């Protein structure tokens, strides 16, 4: 069994876990508190929409990077084995 | 808070579901062989025929032990009834899929709709707790996350049910993680429901491990996935479950990302792995094949089927440790 390869997969899991927690903290500390001094419902809606959009975009970027990391690692390992 | 009574009921529920599954599986093996309900074990050179739909024993044992919990725990009846409804509906969807394969887009839709009892009966708290952040409030978004979460969990578990003992083994570790995390976080619902599902899966693993005497079928994998998602929501173990499910999520996410959408296993022409002449499995070099967790593991070199499952279980144990660490971070208020 290729233990080095298995440790690398464990490393990916650890990285994904750590960045997920850090990402959640980032969203909660920096995006959720965003406010605008206005009583207007439209403004409140727009602010809410922006928060959801910004958090969603960050989550998508995170998923994209995770997938890219695994793809690059997979093809590199497969080619190295042949 | 957890009482000693909860732990006694959890131990009793575990024993009931373990015994039922343990007794039921040999009976199902005989019956399914007689009726020709069998599937080909494609990862073995001799391609043996193995009885399918053994997950029916998991569904039955979960039903019986949940009814036991409804009888003995009067204060949590609403939660256990909801759990029962979700699991039975998803189990039926799985059984139908085993008999007549469903459309690959219809299956996640139906499993997502099976989450409705949780929303209708209000057996959730829309304030998930995260480490470092603490309690959050997701009043509007949370019900939508329940619907999505159930579809993701059921199908992620289903997608990892590819080798002998892979689903039962990894999900047993996952449920043990949820049980330990429930004790850490003081979730009675989490302890009781994890214990009964774990009991059933441990007994099933005995027959499903390499070389498998029975397959779980979609009735088993979808039932287990639904049970895990419902425990996560009602036991308030959302983030812990996501971390513990990392191997399942990785397998599903990278597969779907590499083939670009929802496809049924039989619709994918390029297989992720191939069986070598000596019985070992190797990663396919076809760029169109999905990057499943098994293919990722086999990129490091060919392995026997039982070795791949051992790596699956190792990854599940590691994810379980990270999940328990996450639960501890929540409990310590960090």
From TrEMBL, chain A:
Name of the protein in question: Uncharacterized protein
UniProt superkingdom: Bacteria
Species, as recorded: Desulfofervidus auxilii
Keyword entries, A-Z: Membrane, Transmembrane, Transmembrane helix
Lineage: Bacteria, Pseudomonadati, Thermodesulfobacteriota, Candidatus Desulfofervidia, Candidatus Desulfofervidales
Residues passing through the membrane, by range: 7-31, 43-66
TrEMBL record, chain B:
GO CC field: plasma membrane
Cofactor (UniProt): Mg(2+)
Alphabetized UniProt keyword annotations: Cell membrane, Magnesium, Membrane, Metal-binding, Transferase, Transmembrane, Transmembrane helix
Topology in the lipid bilayer: Multi-pass membrane protein
Name this polypeptide is given: UDP-N-acetylglucosamine-1-phosphate transferase
MF annotations from Gene Ontology: metal ion binding; phosphotransferase activity, for other substituted phosphate groups
List of residues binding Mg(2+): 158, 218
GO biological process: cell wall macromolecule biosynthetic process; cell wall organization
UniProt subcellular location: Cell membrane
Pfam families linked to this entry: Glycos_transf_4
The organism's taxonomic lineage, starting at the top: Bacteria, Pseudomonadati, Thermodesulfobacteriota, Candidatus Desulfofervidia, Candidatus Desulfofervidales
TM region(s), chain numbering: 7-29, 53-72, 79-96, 108-126, 138-158, 178-207, 214-233, 239-263, 311-332
């Amino acid at each position: 069994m290729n233990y080095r390869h298995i440790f690398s997969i464990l490393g990916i899991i650890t990285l994904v876990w750590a960045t997920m927690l850090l990402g959640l903290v980032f969203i909660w500390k920096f995006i959720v508190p965003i406010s605008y001094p206005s009583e207007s419902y439209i403004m409140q809606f727009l602010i809410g929409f922006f928060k959801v959009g910004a958090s969603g975009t960050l989550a998508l970027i995170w998923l994209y990077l995770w997938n890219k990391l695994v793809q690059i690692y997979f093809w590199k390992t497969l080619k190295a084995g042949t | 808070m957890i009482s000693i009574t909860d732990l006694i009921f959890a131990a009793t529920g575990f024993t009931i579901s373990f015994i039922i599954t343990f007794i039921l599986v040999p009976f199902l093996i005989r019956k399914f062989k007689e009726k020709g309900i069998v599937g080909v074990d494609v990862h073995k050179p001799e391609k043996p025929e193995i009885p399918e739909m053994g997950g029916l024993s998991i569904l039955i044992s979960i039903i019986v032990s949940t009814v036991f919990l409804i009888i003995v725990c009067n204060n949590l009846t609403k939660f256990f009834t909801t759990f029962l409804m979700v699991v039975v509906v998803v189990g039926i969807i799985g059984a139908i899929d085993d008999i007549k394969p469903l459309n690959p887009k219809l299956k996640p839709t139906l499993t997502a709709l099976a989450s409705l009892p949780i929303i209708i009966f209000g057996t959730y708290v829309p304030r998930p707790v995260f480490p470092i952040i603490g309690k959050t409030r997701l009043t509007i978004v949370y019900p939508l996350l329940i619907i999505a979460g159930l579809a993701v969990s059921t199908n992620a578990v289903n997608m990892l049910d590819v080798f002998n003992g892979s689903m039962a083994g990894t999900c047993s570790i996952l449920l043990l993680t949820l049980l330990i995390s429930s004790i850490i976080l003081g979730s009675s619902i989490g302890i009781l429901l994890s214990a009964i599902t774990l009991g059933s899966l441990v007994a099933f693993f005995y027959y499903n491990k390499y070389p498998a005497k029975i397959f779980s079928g979609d009735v088993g994998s979808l039932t287990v996935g639904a049970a895990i998602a419902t425990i996560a929501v009602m036991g308030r173990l959302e983030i812990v479950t996501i971390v513990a499910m990392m191997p399942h999520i990785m397998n599903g996410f990278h597969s779907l990302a590499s083939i670009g959408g929802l496809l049924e296993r039989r619709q994918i022409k390029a297989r992720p792995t191939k069986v070598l002449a000596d019985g070992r499995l190797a990663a396919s070099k076809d760029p169109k094949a999905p990057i499943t967790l098994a293919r990722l593991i086999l990129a490091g070199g060919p392995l026997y089927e039982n070795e791949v499952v051992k790596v699956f279980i190792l990854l599940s144990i590691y994810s379980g440790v990270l999940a328990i660490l996450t639960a501890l971070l929540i409990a310590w208020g960090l």
